[in-house]
Amino acid sequence: MEAVRTMLQDSGLQPKFWAEALHAYVHTKNRCSHKLTEGKTPMEIWSGHKPSIRHCRTFGSLAYVDCRAQDEKSSSPKKPSSLDISTWIRLEKPRKKSKRIDVYYYPPSKERLRSINDVKMYCEKNKLEFDPNQFNFKPTKTNTRFEEKSECHNETSSDSVDEASFVNDIFQHEIYMTEIPKTFKETQISPDKEKWDEVMSEEIKLMQNRKVWDLVESKSNMKILGCRWVYNIKHDEKNNVKKYKSRLVAQGFKQRPGVDFTDVFAPLVNFDIIQFLFVLLVCILGWNHCQIDVKGAYLYGILDIPIYMQQPEGFVVKGCEHYVCRLHKSIYGLHQSGRQWNIELSEILFGLGFHQNELCNGLYTKNNCILLIYVDDIVVFSKSQSDLEDSILNIKIKLEITELGPVRYLLGVNFERIGDSVYLHQNTYINKLKTRFKNLPRRRITLPLKVGCILPDRVKENEIK
Fold it and tell me: Are 212 and 299 in contact (CB under 8 A)?
């Protein structure tokens, strides 16, 4: 139904035309090829011949139907109220049956404002104040619509703007847009462009310091993977913006099993164990605890198989455009990255005197200190504060880490210490949902009780009927 909603919104039709939109979508989908059908369309497979698309029109195009007898028709067609619903006609005021029906199409004449430049031109044309910070358009690929010329001229100039549609588009855009860009190009037109550029530069600098890759000349026999930037905004336990984050991710889905990677398993501590140790060690025994985050964890893993990747978008070395990256470390996105990082982390902890638990591979112990490992998040428990600080200091010598203090927010769960108890809840996640959907239309909920009804403090069993 996503396609149906999109077609209705783009055409400006009312929701009551959802059935027609669905019919038009299925009609079009059956005439589109798919990689699984080896270039053939579903209609061609069903009927045995290639279908024609000459009759297809833009969904929601205006059309006029002349249902008069042939000898009554004049040079200019009569225009009853009708609407062209893509590939077939729905008459809002049906007429009597006719042997022949002539249809005159009027392609959509309204112009959509789909980019910041379109909005700027519209504001200049109508002498309106233009503030680019009020708009945050997502860049989209330009789609060219091929429409057949009508025998009749458009009644409205193609330069006119449907103001209602413009306002509706902006409203829908504000509802469904998020502040996190999806692509590198979106960061370049984002109001937070400087922040995104800064975190991307930090990521590239980190990879250079870790010697993640070196540039080699591309050869025809190389299997070269693509890469893309992935962006995120981290929040603290109070849902305040903590930091902007970007990661360069390789297109690991193009890797070949047995050739580009073999084993991929990497152990993680179960969340039930985290809960159990908090109850036992923190609530009952009163141990100290601290959460640390490993910066660029996967970039510590060493690859044992040569892998080649394209240079990251926005950071292609000048003069070396035809060169590719030969990876030495397990960059994000590769199938074996999690495993290679876990192997490297285990060797570091073994060197510091920690022992891996046989029943839980994500748990390490050393005297009065316990470590819980969940990818790049490490929780440290210790009986004394001095042992806790010593353990963190030893890890900091080997890894670049960030001390986050006592655990307050881990794996999407809030840890709130009140007295001798630790309360686990998801208040931060709920607030994120409220912020995300606060502009959506609200529906009234019918309650079984009257609004404002005061419930008694206690109801006795004999009072219940």
Answer: yes
